Structures are given as C-alpha cells and as structure tokens.
Amino acid sequence: MKIVVLAGGLSTERGVSLASGAGACRALRENGHRAIFVDMFLGLPALPDPAESVFDAPDGLCPEASIAPEAPDLEAVRASRPDKSPSLLGPNVLEVCRMADLVFLGLHGMDGEDGRIQATLDLLGVPYTGSGYLASAMAMDKVVTKRMMDSLGIPTPAWRVLTYGPEEAEALSRELPMPCVVKTVDGGSSLGVFLPADREELKRDLLEVLKFGSRVLVEQRVYGRELVVGVLGDRYLPSAMTIPANGNFDYVAKYQTAENGGARELCPAPITPEEQELVGQLALKLYHGLGLQVYARADVILDDAGQPWFLEFNSLPGLTPASFMPKEAAAAGMTYNQLIEDIVQQSVRIRRR
Hints:
six-stranded antiparallel β-sheet, 12 helices, Dna Ligase, domain 1, Rossmann fold, alpha+beta, single chain, D-amino Acid Aminotransferase, Chain A, domain 1, globular
C-alpha cells in the first residue's frame, strides 16, 4: 500500500511524534509498503513529477529522530517554515495524503489526538489509523474522560475542573484539598502536569499550568504503583509498571533512559493475574465507552489494597522504541513490525463515513 506516515505537527509532543513516526515508517517499509514520512506542519516543499513517485523515495523521507530531554521550541519550529502560513498543515500535506491508500497517524497531542486531523481526513475520504474524530476528541479532553469514567462506574480519583485567572491562584491554593495533582485538560507526555508538595508549590503550579490553557483539572493524588495498559483491537495487553528515578513521572522520566534520569520500566508489570484481569477488563470497558478503535493506552494507579484508579486514556500512544505500547505488544509475543502491521490491517477494515 501507499502509506503516508503523518507525524511532527506543532504540539508540545512534537519530538515524541517525530520519533514515533520515523519508527513506524521504517517498519512499514520493511513490511513491504510504499511508506513515506511527512511532517504535518513543515510538509513537503515540492512534489516530484509525477507526484505519486514520492512514494518511491529510497529512504521514505524518514528523518533521524530522537527525543530531547526538554520539550521542543515550537516558536522556532513555526519560524522555520518558509511560507510563514498560519495553517497547521504544511505545503502539499493534503495533496500527498489524497494519493495514499492509508494515512498512518504518528501524531501526538493537539492537532493529532484531538480529532481535528481525523475529521479533516474523513472529509477528504482518506482512510487513517486509530480512532475516529469523536472518540479522539473525547479521550483528549481529560474532563470528558473523567465524566465517562464516572458514568461507567470506573474508579478515578476525585476531581474538579477550574477556570480562573492569575489573580485567583492565591485563594485557590489555600482552599483546594491536598495532596492533589494539577494538570491541563488536554496535555500529554506528562507536560502540563504538576504534583505540588505544599501550598506554596500549589500556588506556583496553579499559575504555571495556565500557560497550557485556561481550563485546569485538579484531582486527588492517589499513591501506588503506576501502571499503563494497552488495548489492541478487542484485547488488553500485559500491563507495564514505571518506577520514576526522581519520584515524578515527568517528560524526562518518560522518554530518557534510566541512566539519563528516565524511569525504570517493568513489563509485564509485577502484579497478580487477578490484578491484571481487573485492570485489563476496566480498560476495555472505558475503551469501548469512549468509542476508541484499533489501539489505545490507559494510565492507572494501583494502590496498596489492589484497587485500580484510572487517570486517562491516550488514543494515539507513543510508538517509539522506548514507548509502552511496543513493549506491551512484545510481552504478548508481537514484534514491533508485527504491531505496526496489525494497526494498519485493523484500520483498513474499519469503514468510516
């Protein structure tokens, strides 16, 4: 098949997306597909003649991508595009997607997981991988996901959503219950997530989180083992457990090696079969409740009593070599290339309007 791997974009998770897309593109080419890598924001300055021969680029246009310890400088990325267009779709992106048999979504965060690119491709009649636009938008919004958990009876920490100005942070820092977690409602890769140790830190974090958006989610902090559980098709995968080096599972902990400050990861997670079954079945229930398709990944805290507390669902989880989804698939007996091919074949079978 002719496949465009769409990655990059202009979200805070751009670096992760580039690495996911590059890995997926190489796997697809090894699997025999005519796959090419396209950065959604930077696009392709020009197409060859004939245009379809772009799918025969010898290297698939794949970049050498690795994840830096810090989040990307999005203003620098924006300034690097020659046409200076306000469009989030770069030159020739839609043109090359129209020529493809399938678009493999290697995007993360805003513009990729929030349903907007899915809706755009739907209107163009172009098939793509993963969930549809509505389920993607619901899963991206942590408040909507929380409401779905409550309606389905899936345990989640007590929560409230806030809209406030900087001048209200002081009063809020005195009245909010502690310990708590402060997070933006539509972030990812642990960006925009704060774990205040005291009320002074809480005030600072309430101000800092406003840089990510005006709606803020505050939830009770639950302590326990940090699990992730992937869903592939209609089955859950073996859970993985993270042990952050510094106590917080932040951006560095998530994407760097343990030697460089990253978290230690155990997959399969050292939990009982009964705990795995409970977490897996609840993940499937929420997956279907949100209308997710093909693959996704839930974040869960398993407390000392064996009670799982669901935090969120990621509709396009990372597919870098260090990502959880490939590791969980490996624990279930799948190679990386088999996982990528399974995502493709499942997505092709879905008939969207």
